[in-house]
Amino acid sequence: MSRNHVTTTVNGDEREFLCSPGQTLLDALRDELGMTGSKEGCGSGDCGACTVVLDGEMVCSCLVLASEAQGRRVETIEGIAEGSQLHPVQQKFLENAALQCGFCTPGFIVASKALLDKNPNPTETEVRYWLAGNLCRCTGYDKIVRAVMDAAAELRQERTAA
Amino acid sequence: MNAPEPKDAFKVVGTRPIRPDGVEKVTGKAIFGTDYKAANMLHGAIVRSPHPHARIKSIDTSKAEAVPGVKAVITGADFPSLEDIIVRMGESSGSTVDISTNIMAKDTAYYDGHAVAAIAAVTRQAALEAARLVEVDYEILPHVIEMCDAFAADATKIKAAINTVGLGEGEQGRPNASLKFTSAKGVAAAAMANAVHVVSGHYSLKPVHQGYIEPHAAVAAWKADGKLDVWCSSQGQFDVRGLTASVLHLEIGNVRVMPLEIGGGFGGKTTIYLEPVAALLSKKSGQPVRVAMTREEVFRATGPAPGGEIDVKLGADADGKLVSAEIEFQYSSGAFGGGDAWAGVMHSVNHYAIEDYKVTGWNVLCNMPKHAAYRAPGAPQINFAVESAMNDLADKIGIDPIELRLKSAVKPGDPSMMGSKFGEIGLIECLEAAKAHPHYSAPLGKNQARGFACGTWMNYGGPSTASVSLADDGSVLVTEGNPDIGGSRASMALMAAETLGVPYEKVNVTIADTSSIGYSMVTGGSRTTYATGIAVIEAAKAVINILRERAAKMWETDVANIEWIDGSAVCTDADNAGKSFTLAQIAAKAGATGGPIAFENGVNPLQHLPGYGAHICDVEVDKETGNVSVVRYTVVQDVGRAIHPAYVEGQMQGGAVQGIGWALNEAYIYNKDGRLDNAGFLDYRIPVASDMPMIDTVMVEKPNPGHPYGVKGVGEVPIVPPLAAVGTAVSRAVGKPMRSLPISPDKVYAALNGG
Amino acid sequence: MEADCLVRVIVMPPFDREFFGGTDRFEIAAKTLFGVVNQLNELGPGFADLADVRAAFAVDGEVQPDWSVPLGDAKEVVVMQKVAGG
């Protein structure tokens, strides 16, 4: 089977991989690049555990072909923290106990950061609708929503201080 | 056992520190079941029956084997014979014959999605292509799925070997019933005839899936020496080991299971599906093999929880005190014996003191996967019927629903349905707290209504092992055998830190593989913080005694002269009175005082107590579309004592939302050909963030005297009351009883429009 | 050695029908729960094999996980099914 050669930027680093024409970006991240932080919960775009940001747009990486990443910028859960410095969304998920099993967490964190990058002051309803494409079976969403609202408040404070 | 210490004496128990595994999980580094890879690993694929019931006449694997890259193909014939399966006592007492048959069909496929063959190949693509080329010659047999078909007296019998057990003198079984079980006290019929107020109703529920987001996956390596290594996520590596060893006829010690992080289980990962398949593919190919399910496979071949048909009749005296209950129900169990009817009976009216009752449950086979445990297995279904009827009774008598329940609620010292006496249970405290909560008396908006329900789960204890060891810098290492499914590492660290008198941050918690520590039962049954917690606390206490002995040696005095206070050994003898060594100072001298300081401890505690919850739900009904929104929800629960309150709240919130999904959205939908029509998260709709309000929680703390810190199990209770709380709220909003779950918009629309 | 204790044994469903032909009350003299289980096994062959997996025992209303604890002057032992969980 012929394989496509793809050059793409992942979390700021130029990366290359070979993929089959039907392979998803999620599979390429996990199997070709060994980045298993993005999870497959459904493979059909229903659960959001594989959420990444592609050229600034939040997508389910299981619905994107790996070849489509050619020449584009991909941001994954592995790139959210800066070194050992957690992003406020990550820190607030920990402080609010917003994860139980933690399997959906990478998708929620990527999606939540994408929201706060666009909307620094979301209402609870805006948070709930933005995250409606991410399934969590453990928490009932309460603590997740609180974590995102807390992170938004902290980021606004940081911006004011800066 | 010691009485629980007073709460204000705690230093770290009851605080909310960040969980030890948290950073790994928010940065995507934690390795879950679906993430593990072994060197030179092959990829598996499973061939599944498209028929709900079919005899397998023959399987031709020659075309599949010819696909380039295919290294092994197995069918049911490759499994050790069922006749020879070793039924092991103690570990994993489930029926391994049924588990083996459910994992891979032998001569008959019993449901849509039943595995019939498996492939291992160098790539997943090659394995999938080969799977498509396996030719199975089926003789299609009649199937039964809906309860009305499965339980009929003249139903097609789907398994010749099944007979109804538990029948009394002269009682008739049913073709597909594997159990009829009755719990009775007094004379229910006579008491019902004397009741002043009587309500009755028929309630229906469909099977629902546990809905964990992580699909099942397992890697197995069958080694040259005949030993087997398995890497998988589960609710208990030891029971994976025991079941896998049974199905494959291996000695338990020759199977080693490495626990990976688990992406949700809710009971559904207390059994096995893939491990023996991966093992046999590995044995045949000589390479490690990974087998993983797609989401569609998860829905078609794992879980679900039973659907049920339930008849309830409750009788009360003039004052509203319950005087009789007559209940009969059927639960589905999939195409295998066993099932949840026993637990359904035992959780039916176990929260009420009733002098006369008769409760009968049936387990009924149907052409679905072998049903699996789901959070408080068997309890939510029966509670939906009983608590809905209680609300009808309150309406009929014209009293407040909580007042009605207070007249019959069980209290410490009352007899349970099980035959034992209740200990320090907290149902009445929960009812009082719910009644006092502002939510219960808040005004309702247009098209809104309120429902209330309470419920119980017995909880469990059972076998657990933990060890506590010290490094020479004073680091504390806790090793245990229970997968962390919702923050239990944090709870274990808190209990160890509290006992030893050291900071939480000093404690490291490792969840060990099956060859690295003694047996622990699954993380399930709401047992881990209780039972494994006791193992950790007792191991820590044993380490304190070792530390006291070592300190005594260092002061050249008797151990009786050493007290352990706030993480230090304090000397009380005349020569060194008041002097102290910290834990770290003693650990540093371990080599000079007798060697490494460590203690491993196995326990089997059963002084767990049942948990109780009281839920208040407000819904708003869209009269144009029939859509139901939950607009406010409050969970009150007796939690004994919350070790890490944030994760206790999380259990209460998560359980409630699963119950709300069960009430409003979730159901297995089979078509007339017996195939599952909604095997994906688009069509099997679990609640999403925009469906839910904040879930308010009230933790009632009535400590369990059978645990040093007062722990009661908290994980399962919160899924029990929501079905009736939601159902009653919707019934009141539409003005008609809604007794069939899920209460989907079409049903609400029909009820609103005279349907 | 302590004397045997005469206890009323109540066998809860499903064990009464499964092992004892529907009889659910017995008078048994034993020192510990081990003795109770052994004698129940004579009345209902096969019971002992399944007892440690499926049964729990309440002595005078309190669940007793340790079968070796002397029954002392206990009056009643209830044989119950263990609960499984999710």
Structure description:
The complex is a heterotrimer of chains A (162), B (755) and C (86). Chain A is α+β, with helices and mostly antiparallel strands and 162 residues long. Chain A has helices spanning 25-32, 88-95, 105-118, 124-130, 142-161; strands spanning 4-10, 13-19, 51-54, 57-60, 73-75. Chain A has a five-stranded mixed β-sheet with strand order 2-1-5-3-4, sandwiched between helices. In chain A, a hairpin with a 2-residue loop joins strand 3 and strand 4 (57-60). In chain A, helix 2 (88-95) packs across helix 5 and helix 3 packs across helix 5 (142-161). The mean pLDDT of chain A is 97. Among the domains of chain B are: 7-30 and 461-603, Aldehyde Oxidoreductase, domain 4; 378-419 and 438-451 and 611-752, Aldehyde Oxidoreductase, domain 4 (2-Layer Sandwich). The radius of gyration of chain B is 27 Å and the shape is globular. Chain C is globular, with a radius of gyration of 12 Å. Chain C has one domain (5-81): Ubiquitin-like (UB roll) (Roll), CATH 3.10.20. With 86 residues, chain C is of the alpha+beta class. Chains in contact: A-B, B-C. Chains A and B meet through helix 2, helix 3, helix 4 and helix 5 of A and helix 1 and helix 19 of B.
Structure, briefly:
The complex is a heterotrimer of chains A (162), B (755) and C (86). Chain A has helices at 25-32, 88-95, 105-118, 124-130, 142-161; strands at 4-10, 13-19, 51-54, 57-60, 73-75.
The CATH superfamily of the largest domain in chain A is known as Beta-grasp domain
Total of domains of chain C: 1
In angstroms, what separates the terminal alpha carbons of chain C? 43 Å
User: Most extensive interface, residues per chain?
Assistant: A-B, 58 and 58 residues
CATH superfamily of chain C: Beta-grasp domain
Structural class designation of chain C: alpha+beta
Gap from first CA to last CA of chain A? 53 Å
| CATH architecture assignment name of the largest domain in chain A | Roll
Radius of gyration of chain A: 16 Å
What overall geometry of chain A do the principal axes of the alpha carbons give? Answer: globular
Would you tell me which CATH topology of the largest domain in chain A applies? Ubiquitin-like (UB roll)
What portion of residues of chain A is helical? 25-40%
User: What is the fold named in CATH at topology level of chain C?
Assistant: Ubiquitin-like (UB roll)
The tally of structural domains of chain A comes to: 2
Classify the oligomer: heterotrimer
